Amino acid sequence: MWQAEERKFVIRAKEKLKIIKHFIARGKRSLVIYWPATPSARQGMKKSGYTVGKNDALKVRLVRVDLPGSVEVLITNLWEEEGHSPEEFKDLYFLRWGVETNICLQTNILQMESFTGLGVTSVLQDFYATVMIANLHSVLIKDAQQSVDIQENEKMYPMKINKNKSFAKLKSCIVFLFIYEDVQTILLKLNAYFVKNLVPVRKGRSFPRMRKNQQTKSKYKTFPNFKPAY
């Protein structure tokens, strides 16, 4: 049986699916369908404690989002009769960008998947250490970014803190924050470094989506589009 209490979701559909291709070809903005569960989906649901029969189907809504140069299809259970019109989903679609960029930051810049061990304790230790550094970094660059915003200059684009370099600098200094008494001096040096290492903010840019191969069975393999600063 499906879960009794409905949980709202919005996910991006893979355009290679036949049902998605058919929906795009019809030119509709929104369509409610009943999506049958595949054998692999039923197996995955069974592992999560849900029993799904061969004849069971999930009621979902497909919503078309037109982007510059491409079309995206969202799968959701936010129904139109509940007040969620198709026009709202374009703005809603862009709200996921902050989540996706944060995942990229954690996996590529912070290399969260590069664990020091394969045991549960090692993985949890590395995970929480990475999250702690990310949170500390977010607090520290906030003040530095405010200083950058105040210092108006004649540059063509607005500037922001270079996250790659700022994380590298923080990682090299973070131990000192816990073992030295003069923490303020270290924080001032970090702030000065952050303010000097900036990147331009070019709004309105778009790039074609690059499909990447899935990870191999090796312990760690990343797909960064940059060279880490450490």
Describe the fold and architecture:
By secondary structure, the protein is of the alpha+beta class. The chain has two domains: 10-95, no CATH class; 99-200, no CATH class. The chain is built from eight helices and six strands. The strands form two sheets. A four-stranded antiparallel sheet has the order 1-4-3-2. Helix 5 (120-150) crosses helix 8 (183-196) and helix 6 runs antiparallel to helix 8 (183-196). It is extended and about 65 Å long. The chain starts with 9 loop residues before the first strand and ends in a 30-residue tail after the last strand.
Main pleated sheet? 4 strands, antiparallel
SSE class: alpha+beta
Task: Please report the number of helical segments.
Answer: 8
Order of helices and strands: EHEHEEHHHEHHHE
Q: How many DSSP E strands?
A: 6
Distance between the termini: 50 Å
Radius of gyration: 23 Å
Mean pLDDT: 83
How would you briefly describe this protein structure?
The protein is an alpha+beta fold and 230 residues long. The chain has helices at 18-26, 39-47, 89-95, 97-109, 120-150, 163-173, 176-179, 183-196; strands spanning 10-12, 30-36, 57-67, 70-76, 159-161, 198-200. Strand 3 (57-67) and strand 4 (70-76) form a beta hairpin.
For the structure shown, list the relevant keywords.
single chain; 230 residues; alpha+beta; 2 domains; four-stranded antiparallel β-sheet; two-stranded antiparallel sheet; 8 helices
